[in-house]
Amino acid sequence: MKKGRVVVLGIAATAALAAAWMANSLISRPPEVQQVETTVGATDVLVASKDINLGDSVRADDFKWQQWPVEGVTPGLITKESQPDAPSELSGAVARAPFIAGEPIKDQKLIKISEGGVMAAILPRGMRAVSTPIREETAAGGFILPNDRVDVILSHKQKSGRKEETVSEAVLRNVRVLAIGQALENDDGEKVVAGKTATLELTPSQAEVLTLAQSIGEISLSLRSLADAQTTDESTAPIGDDGSSTVKLLKYGVPSRSFGVN
Questions:
Q1: Model pTM score
Q2: DSSP label of 76
Q3: How many domains is the chain built from?
Q4: What keywords is this UniProt entry annotated with (predicted)?
Q5: Which helix (H) or strand (E) holds 176?
Q6: What gap in Å lies between CA 241 and CA 15, rounded to an integer?
Q7: What residue numbers bound the domain in which 76 lies?
C-alpha cells in the first residue's frame, strides 16, 4: 500500500473518531436549565375565617388576614394596608350574601345596621316581615328574643247566645321572631329585649292572617321551647294556603271559626 494512501486513511479514521466523540458528548450532556428568579408581590386581604350565612351578624373573629397576590387584588377587596382596622369596623354588620371560609370579604355583601335595609337583607326569599304590637304581659313577660320561635294567639270577644265571652285561638304556630322593637339580636348576657312591637317572619298568606287577627282582637305571643321549635308538623303549616276567600282560625289545632277576607 502506498504511503500517501495510509496517511489519508489515518486522517479519515481520526476524523471519524473525533466526530463520534463529539456526538456522544452532546447526547449525554444534560440540557442547561436557565433559572429565572421572579418576585411576586403579595398583600394581606380580609377573608372569611369560617362560613357565613345569609343574614348572619358578623363579628371581628369571623374575619382573618390572608396573603393575596397583588395582581389578584381587584376593586372591592379589603386590604390590610388600606383598612387595618376592618375586622373591628365591620363587626356587627349583617351578611347580605353568604360567604365560604377563605372567600375575600367585600363591602357590598355586608350592611351595617346604622345604614338601614337590614331587615330586607336578612329576610329569606319569599318571606315577609310583619310587625304586631305587644306588651310585656302578652309576650312571655318580655323574655321573647330575636330568633325565638312563637305561636301567635288571638284573644277576642264572641257572642254565645245572649252571652258574650272572650275566647283565645292560635292563628299562627312556630313562626320566627325577627326583631323586638328595633333590636335584631340580643347583646351578650342580655336576657330581655324591651320593645312595643314584635316583627315576625311570615309567608304572604300568614301575613294576611296576622293583619286580619290584629283587627279582630288582641295579639299575644306564646314562646316555644328550643326543642319544640325544631319540630315540623301540620300545626306549623301556614293558615289560609288553600286559596280560599276565608281565613280559618285554629283552636288546639282544630278549625273553630272562619272570617271572610275583604
A1: 0.53
A2: T
A3: 2
A4: Signal
A5: strand 163-180
A6: 101
A7: 42-112
